[in-house]
Amino acid sequence: MPDIPGRSPAVEAVGLVKRFGDFTAVDGVSFSVPAGTVLGMLGPNGAGKTTTVRMMTTLSRPTAGTARIAGHDVLEEPAMVRRSMGLTGQAATVDELLTGRENLAMIGGLYGIRRAALRSRCEQLLEQFSLTDAGNKVVRDYSGGMRRRLDLAVSLLAAPPVLFLDEPTTGLDPHSRNELWDVLRELVAGGTTLVLTTQYLEEADQLADTIVVIDRGRIIAEGTPLQLKERSGAASVIATVTHAHQLEHAHRLLVQHSPEIFLDADVRTLTVAAGGLDDLTRIAGLLSAEQIAVDDLRLSRPSLDDVFLSLTGHRSSTGEEQP
Amino acid sequence: MTSADLPITPPGLWRQTSIIVRRSLIHTRRMPEMLTDVTVQPVIFVLLFSFVFGAAVSVPDGGNYREFLLPGIMGQTIVFTAFVVAMGITADVDKGIVDRFRSLPISRFSYLLGRAIAALLHSAIGLTVMAVTGLVIGWRIHGGILDAILGFVLIVVFGFGMIWYGVLIGSWLRSVEAVNGFLFSTLFPLTFLSNVFVPTAPMADWLRFIAEWNPISSLVQAMRELWGNGPAAAPGAALPLQHPVIATVLWSLALTVVFAPVALRAFVRRTAD
Question: Considering the entire predicted model, what is its pTM?
Answer without folding.
Answer: 0.81
